[in-house]
Amino acid sequence: MDLQKYDHDPDFIFHKSWWTDEGYVHRGLDRETKRKTERLVRFSDIKEVLIGPAWIRMHARSRDSSGNKRNLYRQGLRLVFRVESNGDITYLSFLSETKKDVDSWILRIHTHAIPAYVTDLDLHEAKREDFDLHYESIDYPATPS
Q1: What is the pTM assigned to this prediction?
Q2: pLDDT tens-place string over residues 19-43
Q3: Which of 26, 76, 92, 99 is the most exposed place for a label (fewest CB within 10 A)?
């Protein structure tokens, strides 16, 4: 899963991203310097992961027997990685919609002993700045999953 498919960084235009043994790499263009660059987020800098449902509205609409339109949703998971590096806290956000993706994420989280927490809150519509402002107030169990 690529970060650029779900969350946008206002200072960086993503071109490609991938996981390595060291962590998460994303290649792109720095808007300020206009230079191509690669950024590495080391597994050791990922302090925890918050996992929550993501209810994704489907574009197709259906009519029930009374003729009323109703929205249809599919369920995915949103994973928010809390990253601490050089005294700064940032968040990486990923959307996962298949069991295969979820299994891959869980294995990666487990392999690198990253504490993972689960919330019942629908995280689908949350923006990057929402995590900057409100991440600490999200209610989840005190012990990792």
Answers
A1: 0.73
A2: 888 998 888 888 888 889 888 899 9
A3: 99
